[in-house]
């Protein structure tokens, strides 16, 4: 029987293998303390508004400060600079003040949703619209004693004609790197097309090795041994026709189904009325060096948490009214 209520709490039997918080040396802890002591001054220099300052203090938890220090490789000055830039971005963008009504049009078609958990109990976000969903996924993670999120990027049917603008991709990557450090548990790139590999090959040399090691590739239409060993002919993916503009609070206009693009977490504009070679799933195994490589999706997300649309056993059907009520209450 189909389920329309999203799973926002991990099953009680989900026990992460280890704590996400790394053990710090005395020297590293001293850096964290130094950055923590600078927070009030950073906030005061960001905005004079008392309400905005209060929101930034809530954001700047000890765990957040630690993550920024880890991302800055425990360089106190660099961590303070990163944190200060993020304070300014959160106020300018209003990351914690996004009106659900503003992004709801992006959710009505099920373009993106938070539902289910990975094998390490990190909430899974399958995205079409960006910042709002990430903020909600992080809130769900912290509510359940976690810090990181698992991102599932379904690229089936994504090619030259329905990919997001390069400016959007680079802007989103910049936001993720600068303002959400140490939040990624794993990123799963599903059904990468020839076109997606082209983008990946361009950005891969600039991806931090630690981040790259968290990237996994899956083909939901074939078994992993068929992708890695047999290397059969790629599966023809259905083309996706969509139209709209691109933004970060949400992406306007209707797209059918859930597709996406690696790194951008979204997909679609212009026209594409037929299947093309750039939208077919390609294995390209030789270019996965340094990543988690090809694997089976259910090794990363348990079958009972993985919607059937991705080959799992969870018969989740996106019902916007039910989902939106649940996610906006987080």
From TrEMBL:
Q: Name one GO molecular function term.
A: phosphatidylinositol transfer activity
Return the annotated region ranges for Disordered: 1-23, 271-293
Pfam families listed in its UniProt record: CRAL_TRIO (PF00650)
| Annotated Gene3D superfamilies | CRAL-TRIO lipid binding domain
Q: Which PROSITE patterns match?
A: CRAL_TRIO
Going by the entry's taxonomy, the superkingdom of the source organism is recorded as: Eukaryota
Q: Domain CRAL-TRIO: where? A: 127-318
> InterPro entries, from UniProt?
CRAL-TRIO_dom, CRAL-TRIO_dom_sf, CRAL/TRIO_N_dom_sf, PI_Transfer_CRAL-TRIO
Name of this protein: CRAL/TRIO domain-containing protein
Q: Which organism is it from?
A: Rhizoclosmatium globosum
